[in-house]
Every structure is written in structure tokens, then in C-alpha cells.
Amino acid sequence: MSLRVRIVLVEPEGKINFGQVLRLSRNFGVDDICVVNPKFDVRDTEVLEFAAGGADLVDRVRVVGSLVECLEGADFSVCTTSIAGAPDDPLRQAVAPRAIPLLLPRGSKVALVFGRESVGLTRSELASCSLVSTLVTPSDYNVLNLSHAVALYLYELLGRDLADVVVGERCPGDYMALLSRYLASLGSAYGLSEYEIAALKHVLNKALLTKVECRVLYRLLKASLATYKLLHKKVPTEPVEREE
Q1: Nearest to residue 108, comparing CAs of 172, 180, 32?
Q2: First vs last Cα of the chain: how many Å apart?
């Protein structure tokens, strides 16, 4: 089973680009599209013209007011950026598109997030995602047109048949989310910044963990929170427990 993709566009600015994204969605069989505060009417005649055979997908587009709403119900989220790999910025340690289907368990629901054509995603938006990804090009200019970037990501996630690289049952998305919450609680308790905590979550989602390994890490993180409370006589934010 391949990944299940939701395309998320944050404040898209171009009607032609959006129409072409609808067309690409039809090409790759994606019918889950969420748009945050578009700068145009998603049913504009120019959008439908450039959507061509994907024009009917406009009826499936969900328009919302925040990125948080678009991420609801997804097992994982991948924020895209053209600025990555900065040696002193833990938030922008990105993975290549072709690595994404290898890192995430098969069958997962993945929100693939693209930013504004003019300025991309904010740092807070990048921090909200499970992973950050960037396109690596042969030149020093990797800023692609929005619809071109969507095409490349959809091909890497859905257009190739890739074997799993982990032997054993992968850690499910809800368990990974719980581990992320434990990391966030510990990081906050020890004074890490929002972006440092986000970097820890990205490390977790790059780790190709099996279910057994997740259980071991869960026990360690839970014990660490309990030890913190005992030593510091205060209670850090407790994660909501996963129901078995």
C-alpha cells in the first residue's frame, strides 16, 4: 500500500498555478486538497480552464483559515522549503523528496504542505510539520514554480514503486504522534525553543522506527518525565496517552 497524500497549499497567490495543481492531482489520483486562505476564488474560470481534466476536483477542495485545520487527520506532515541545510539552523535540516516514502510507514496519510509563491512558509509553519523537505537541483537555484514543485513531489511519493527499507512492523502514525508529544513536553521542561523541539520531532520521524523500538522509546520518555517531576517538584505538560 502506498502513501495517501493530502495536498495542502498555504495562501496560494496564482490562479493558473492552482488550476495546474488540480490537473496534477487528477494525474496522480489525489482527491484530498486543502487550501489555507487563497488569494482568489478557487472556482474562478481561469482556475478551471488551467485545471483541464482536473476541473471537477474543485468540488473536493476544502478552504480553511489555518494550517492547523489542514493538518488535522493526517498521520504525518511534510513542509516544503527552498531554504534548507543551514549548518546552524536545526529547523531547516531537510530530507529530499525521494526519501519521504522510505521514511514514513506505508498506508500513512501524509499532508504535503506548500507555501506561498512569494515567500514560502513561515518558521512557525515549518515547525508544525513532522518533516521538512527541499528539492535539490544541480544548480544553486532550487526555487521552482509551485505547480512544478507539486509535480515532482507527487511523482516521488506516488509515481514510483519502492520497497520498504525496514524489516518488521513500522511504528504506526498515532504512536509516533504520542512520542512527538513526549519529546515536546521534555524539551519544553528543559527550556528548549519551539524550533529546537521541532528539530527533535524531525529527528524522530527520520528514524525508521519499528513498533518494538517505539515501545522502548516510549518507556524511556515516560520515565524521563516522571523523573523530572520527582527532581524538580513540578509537572511539565503531560501528553495525552495513546489508547492501545
Answers
A1: 172
A2: 23
- 22/128 Cα distance (integer angstroms): 25
Residue entry with cell 511504528:
171
Q: pLDDT per residue over 177-186, tens digit each? A: 999 999 999 9
CA distance 114 to 181: 24
Number of C-alpha atoms within 13 angstroms, CB side, residue 21?
Answer: 30
Cα angle: 229, vertex 235, 236; to 5 degrees: 105
Q: In order of start, what are the domains of the chain with their CATH numbers?
A: 4-158 (3.40.1280.10), 173-232 (no CATH)
Q: What is the pTM of this model?
A: 0.91
Q: pLDDT tens across 49-78, in order?
A: 999 999 999 999 999 999 999 999 999 999
Q: Cα–Cα distance between 85 and 56 in angstroms, integer?
A: 39
